[in-house]
Structure formats: structure tokens, C-alpha cells
Design goal:
elongated; alpha/beta; Ribosomal Protein L15, Chain: K, domain 2; 3 helices
Amino acid sequence: MDLSGLKPAAGSRKKRKRFGRGEASGHGGTSGRGHKGLKARAGAFTRPGYEGGQMPLARRLPKRGFRNYFRKDIIIVNLEKLREFPKGAVVDAQALLDSGIINRTGDGVKILGKGEISHPLAVKINLVSRSARDKIIAAGGSIEVV
């Protein structure tokens, strides 16, 4: 036996359908598209969510709630997370990003007062809660709202 004598198994190779090549081909006439209708037309296109003229699901369901498109995306950071900064370090949005405490700045960063801090830090941030402000100042740090 040699490689030139090899043939594929019987029935494993099949010719592709050739549409629109006359009635004798078995795929002439409407070329497998059925009669009339949107998908029978050349260049037929249905957008996602189209249900053939039936009222779409997105319009059948009731609207719920309210979405404020003018809302601010404020990222919150608790005071206890600032303990990993060394004494006297400048803590700003970029420093928080670099340290991995936050992964985006959004429309601003706010420091909240959960936890304690024992060493002074220079905080330059968008928003600071009153309790966080008191704790940072009590530890000998400074706050600058930018």
C-alpha cells in the first residue's frame, strides 16, 4: 500500500450546495429561501431584538425606576486603607491608583472615616468626610481639597 492509493471513506466527502443554478439542480427557483418575506429578499437584514413585527420584548416590559444621567461617580476609600502609606507621604488620587487601593478615579475620590490612622499624611483629594478629616488632623496630617 502506498499514499497515492489512499481515498476518503465512502460518503465522507460531499459537494457543497450550489443555489440558484436552475430547477434541475434541486436548488433553483427560490434558492432555498422559501416564498416572499423579509429573509427571501436580497440584502435582508434584521436588527438585534427584531421579532418579525411582533411587539418586541423590550417594549412589552414595563419601565422601572429612574436613572440619573447627571450623577457623579465618586470612588470611596476608607481611612484604614491609608495605613499602608509611609509617615508624611502625599496621598492623592494618583498615589491611590499606583498603590492599587483604587482601580479608577471616576469623577472624584472621597475619603471616609472608617478605621484609624496613627501617623501623619498629607492628603490632597476631592472629598473628605468630617470624621476622616478629624482623624487625619488628630494624627498630625494635613488635608487639601483639590
